[in-house]
What does this fold into?
Amino acid sequence: QCQVSEYAAREVKKGISGFGGSDKSQILFMVRHLLGLPDLQQYDAADALALAIFHSQRVDIARKMDFDFNL
It folds into this structure.
């Protein structure tokens, strides 16, 4: 069985940069900062990593709260 989660782009952007209307360059900047990857240049890779960071934070919070978000 595979768990599937779905997030709105604005939700992920707000979780990563603090602003739901962030553009790709802002997300790239924050992913570089959060993961210590100064050489990261690809926007698509930064988007994928941002989604992974956001999801892992959400799962961690849900576990700490002992709450099931169907994760």
Observations:
- The chain is about 60% helix and 0% strand.
- The first helix runs from residue 9 to 17.
